Every structure is written in structure tokens, then in C-alpha cells.
Amino acid sequence: MTQLHFKKEADKLEHITCTLRLVTNYRQLNKAAKRPLHPFSSGNRSVKTAWFVKLDVVHGYFQVSLDESNSMLTAFLLPSGKCRHTVAPMSLNSSSDEFIIRTDQAIAGLDW
């Protein structure tokens, strides 16, 4: 079971209202998790590039499903009972690794 808390975030548009975001503490799980290896493009390739693209993928981690055994590792307690993530939580290191791998696969082979 992991610790959690809610983080107050100011609304980026209005600065008047705020939203609460569930934040889970996966420090111990991050220490034990095996992270996938994924190569980074060489700097030489980037220097010779004529086009640069910036993508803002809203809710990208929520597109990465967890299988049941990995989902059980993300369990946390709420006053209403035990919960777990069924999609990649933002505070888990391997979530960003997997998201980057999937994004690279999606754009691989595009003729820029």
C-alpha cells in the first residue's frame, strides 16, 4: 500500500478556482521497479534536423493500461476503501518510460 494525498492546483485559465489532484507516493516501488531500456536519439541527428515538433499529449499516461498484477502494486487506501490504478500513474518512473517508448513507436517511420 502506498501513501497518498491530494495536491491543490490553481486553474491555469482563471486563477480563481482550483482543482485537486490525487498524488500517490511510489518512492519504494520506484526503487524496486525495473525500468525498460530505450535508446535516445543522438545529438548529431537532432542538429541536422530541419523540423522540430512539440506535442502536448493531454492525459497521455491514461492511455497506458496496466495488467492486473502490476495494477495491484499501485494499491492505495481511501476512506471509502482500497483502490488501485488500472492505467499508468504519473508518479511511477516506468510510466514515463513506457509512454515515451509508445510515442516513439507511433511516430517512427514518419517522413519529416
UniProtKB/TrEMBL annotation:
Write out the GO biological process terms: DNA biosynthetic process
Extent of the signal sequence: none
Highest taxon listed in the record's lineage: Eukaryota
Protein name per its UniProtKB record: Reverse transcriptase domain-containing protein
- Species name for this entry? Tigriopus californicus
